[in-house]
Amino acid sequence: MSQLHPNLDIDQANQDLKGKSPEEIVAWALTQAKNPIITTNFRPYESAILHLVAKQKPDITVLWVDSGYNTDATYRFANKVIEDLDLNVITYIPKQTAAHRDVTMNGIPGVNDEQHDKFTEQVKLEPFRRALDELKPDVWFNAIRKDQTEFRQGLDVLSLSKDGVLKVAPLFEKTDSDLDDYLLEHHLPNEFDYFDPTKVEEHRECGLHTQL
């Protein structure tokens, strides 16, 4: 039970939401929210979750933790989606510059490098914790899907963060093919030139959904 959601039976809520559409899941979650946010990294298919939530709550705070290591294409994609959907984006960045970190760590540490955990803490986890502490959301919309990693197969549409924030994944049961259809239906852009330096490998967790 969460102090932010003392009356919520999350297991029952997950049962109740089984078979519901993403739109219905978003609508339900917004009834639980006083200060919702949606997080994005502008990876492939992110325009789907952003459109899905923003069409029901256009002024929702969109949190983007920009590691500073995104591709040129990702930055152009982010600019387009932000403008096209008129998103209320708040950007958080690491406390250290990428240039300083590159010198200190000799570039991006590989996943087997002892500095990789420190790198992930600096570029992703610390800025996210700082953002959650300052923004104080009670509902956190995210784009995680069951088929992305082995860890996520053990999750559900709803889960609670370490601080009791209700994490909502409206697209949890959807596949790439489903999202291709959604993007086509709503004339939304997509971009596959994307790199996450904290994950490196597509099916690896970076710690965001395992630690926060």
Automatic annotation (TrEMBL):
One GO BP: sulfate assimilation, phosphoadenylyl sulfate reduction by phosphoadenylyl-sulfate reductase (thioredoxin)
Phosphoadenosine phosphosulphate reductase domain span: 39-189
Domain of life of the source: Bacteria
Organism: Psychrobacter halodurans
UniProt protein name: Phosphoadenosine phosphosulfate reductase family protein
GO cellular component term of the entry, any: cytoplasm
Similarity comment: family membership: Belongs to the PAPS reductase family. CysH subfamily.
Recorded GO MF terms: phosphoadenylyl-sulfate reductase (thioredoxin) activity
UniProt xrefs under Pfam families: PAPS_reduct
UniProt-listed InterPro entries: PAPS_reduct_dom, Rossmann-like_a/b/a_fold
Known pathway: Sulfur metabolism; hydrogen sulfide biosynthesis; sulfite from sulfate
